[in-house]
Amino acid sequence: MKPAGVVRKVDQLGRIVLPKSLRKRYQMNEGDPVEILVQGDHIILERYRPKCVFCGSMEEVNEYKDRYICAVCMSEMTSLQRHA
Hints:
Layout: H1 20-25, E1 34-39, E2 42-47, E3 61-64, E4 67-70, H2 71-83
Antiparallel strand pairs: 1-2, 3-4
């Protein structure tokens, strides 16, 4: 991990403000979902990218009935349905 050289204080509600330069650099806009990950003693913020509920892939993921499914798993399910 590369330090950004920016120090921010956590406010009374547990919030921090990401500097505009970082938001712009990582294409984070107001309202964008952010995933919070923990690795050892580190807290990592990432832009949220949906993952397939079946295989965990982040490629060609579409929402279906409030769940995310990748094109490969959707194709496999469609194939299974045809054979049933």
